[in-house]
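To: structure subgroup
Subject: Chain for Friday's discussion

All,

I'm putting the inputs and outputs inline so they're searchable in the archive.
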Amino acid sequence: MWVAGMAGGAAVVSYWAVVGPGFNWLLSGTLFVVGGAAALASASVAGYVGAAAALAAGFVARHHMRAAALFAVSAVAGLVVAVPDGGVVASIAGALFLGAMTSEMLLGHWFLVDPQLPRWALQRLSLAAGVGLGADLAVVGALGAFGSADVVWVWAYLALAVMTGLLVAGVWFSLKEPAYSGVMAATGLSYLGVLTAFGVAVVGRLLVAGLLDRPVRFYTRKGDDGTTGLFYGGRVAKDSSGPVAYGDIDETGACLGLARAETEPGSDLNEELLRLQRSLFIVGAELATAPENHHKLVDGETRVTADMVEELEQAIDRIAEERGMPEIFLVPGGNRLGAALDVARATARRAERNAVTHLRAGGYEGSYLLAYLNRLTDYLFMLARAAEETWTPSKEK
C-alpha cells in the first residue's frame, strides 16, 4: 500500500515537472528496493512488474512524462498486490495519504535547496494527504473496526489520526510563510507526519483485521451483586425460582454428560444422550425467559414442543417392549452407566419440581415444559434399567 502510494506520488510529481530528474532517480531507486522486497515476500507477479516499472522510470528520469507513466504503472501494480489483503477502497485510501505524505516530505528537500521552486506542488500533496487521511478514517470506521476493538487501541488510532491531521495542517500553513523558514518547518513537520501516518495505517489495518479486539473474558462481574441475566433481557436474583429451576436443568445436563462418558463414542446410546443434553438447552432457555418475553420464544429452539414430549414417549415404549416394565421398586447401581443415569433422573425430577414452582409464580400457562421433564425422568429411568444386565429389588428375597 505504501509502495503504491509512493509510486503514485512520484508519478504526479514527475508529471508536474517542478524539479529535475534527481527526484525521479531517488524514487526509482527507493521503489525498486522496497517494491522488489515486497514482491519477493508476496511472490506476486504484479509486485515484480511494479518494481521493474519503477526501475525503468529511473532510466528515463529526464523525460518527465515517460517517467510519470512508468511510475503510474508501478502504482497500479502496487495496488493490485495490496487489494487482496486490504480491499479496494481501504487500499486506495491508505495509498493516497501515505503516498502524498511521503512524497511531500521527499520533495521538500528540493525546496530547501531552491526555495524559489513553486510551493503549490507541496501544498497539493499536503492537501491530498489530508483528504486521504479523512477517507481512511471513514473506511476503517465503516468496516466496523471500532465495535469489538480494545478501547485502548481505538483511542491510540484516533490519537495518531488527529496528530497526523494536525501535522498535515501544520505543513499547509507553514508553506504559506514566504520566508525560507516556512519550507524548513513544512519539511520538518512532514517527517513527523510520515511517522504518524504509518502508525495510522498499521493500527487501522490491525483494527479492521480484528487483531486488536478486546480480550474475551469468561467473567463479566455483572453477577457479583447476586443477580443473573435472563434470556431476551432482564435480571433477577440468583436464588429466585427461575435460576433455581434452570440451574437444576444445567445439573441434569452435567449428569447426562457423566453417563455419556460411560458409553462407546458414536454408539446409539451415546448419540441419544447427547441429543437429550442438547434438548435441555431448550428447556433452560424457556425457564430463563421472563413471562413478558415468552412471545419471543421459538418452538424447538427456545421453547419445548409437543413433538419433543411425544418423542420421549415413543422412546420409553420401545424400551418397555424390549426389556419389560419393572413391577417392583429397584435399587440403583447395577453398573456405572446405570448409576449415572439414575443420578441424572433424580436431578431431572428435582428440576421438574422447581419448574412447577417457577411457572406457577410467573402465571405462565400452555407450556409443554413440565410434561417434557416428567417424561424425561421416566425415560432416564428406563434407560438406566436397559443399561443394567440385572435389576436389584429394593427388598431382599
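Points worth raising on Friday:
The first strand starts at residue 227 and ends at 229.
Residues 222-387 form a domain with the Hypothetical Protein Ta1238; Chain: A; fold (CATH 1.20.1200.10).

D.
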